[in-house]
Every structure is written in C-alpha cells, then in structure tokens.
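[Meeting: bench + compute handoff]

Bench side (C.D.) handed over the final construct sequence. Compute side (W.E.) agreed to return the predicted structure before the next meeting so the bench team could plan truncations. Sequence as handed over:
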Amino acid sequence: MRYEKLCCFLSYITPTDIMKYLLSFLVLTFSVILNVIFLPFRMLLSLFGVFSRSPKGSYTEGKDVIKMRCEGDVLNVNCDSLNEEEQAEFRAVITAGMDFPRYDGKVKHAYELKYVKNSKTCPRCQLEVRQYYANFIYATQVAPRVMFAPAGFFCIECPTVIIDHEMIKKGVAKEFQLQGVVGIDYDTQRQPDIFQTWNGNETIHIVDEGQKIPGLSMAQIKSHSHSNKKEKSQRRKHIAKQKQSRRKNRRKN
C-alpha cells in the first residue's frame, strides 16, 4: 500500500520540479558555505559598527567615522572622530578579544626591539617580559599623538619596556612624521609615564611654549651632538688657518 502511494506521488513530479528542487538545494548549500567563510569578516565589521555613532547617538556609516587601512600585517584604525568614552569602549572591546591584556604598571626605561639581543628577557634585570597593549605616546611634527597597540614587551619586575618600533611606525598616519616614542599614557586614570632613558641613554625632551613635546629621539640627539662637534672642529680649523695666514703676512712684512 505504501509502495503504491509512493509511486503515485512520484508520478506527479515532473523533471522540471526535480530541477527546481535541485537548484534550491544548491543555492542553500552555497549560502551556508559563504556565511561560514565570511563570518569572521562580518563579526569584525559589526564590531566597528558599534562605534560608528555620532555624538547625538544616531548611527552613521562606519567609513565616514572610522578610517581603516592595512600596512603590511598591521590593521590601522583611526579613531580621531570618536570621543574619549567611545575610544575607551573601543580599547576595552579590542583587549577583551585578544590574548594580550592592557598594561597598567609603571615605565621609566625604554628599548627598541632591534636594539636588544634577546627580546624575551629584560635588558636591565634579565627577567621575563610579556607583551601588552598600551597607549604609546609618540611625537610628530605637529603635536604628540597616542597609539593603542600591542607594541610593548614589559618587564614583570622593573619599569622597563621593549618597544616594537616598526609596529609603531606602520601605525602612524601618512600625514604625520614619527619623531620618536616618548612615553606611555593611561587615559584619565593617572599621569602618563615619560621615558627617562632610551636604549640605556638618558633622554632629553624639548617642550614648546604650550609645554608639549614636539619630540626628539635619542638618535636625533646623537646626530645633533655629532653635528655640533663637527661644527666646532671646523671652526677650530678655520681659526687655525687664519692665524697661520696672519703669521705668514707678518713675516713678509
């Protein structure tokens, strides 16, 4: 009896119906595959969409508020258009989904990653260092700026950090010129830490009329001191030549 009902049901199915069912199955399968493939990208876009709000609370397009660009293996997100609360929320969400927490200690000494021999140990006390997110204060030709990035390997014992300077360099917007990393910022929690030494040398920070640091890295300090020494030696040679020529003139007279 069941066999007869099945034959009767199949007799009503035409080849056209079979093609429709097959096409629907293929479309459904293809859509599921696309959703699985693009799920991480959709999650990333939804993450940034949370912060794509105007001050009044109305939503706008993310591309009009947050600018993103890729620099090699680094994704740069420009949050200049966000207020302080939105930026803090953004940083909290980023660190919550990453393996690196946000640094909340004290820093006095900074080293470049390429300068140290072993990036896994502190160059001062030889103990372990750990990678953290932090607000890195860097100087530009306009004004100091802050970059939130996992570019620091902080010592677990002493106030020392090893900085991935190349990561900072990739994160700087094209309209700015990096003139050195000068410290760590902690938002409104407490005062920022300005580096006292850089690669083992004492730092000298020059401030402008508004008590802001335009920035002068140790490399620039060394180059300036070297150029000053060169100028002094040239002046001495010039004075010596003048004295020698005067002596010759006196002998002739």
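W.E. noted at the follow-up: The helical segments are 2-11, 15-49, 62-65, 84-96, 165-171, 218-252. C.D. will use this when planning the next construct.
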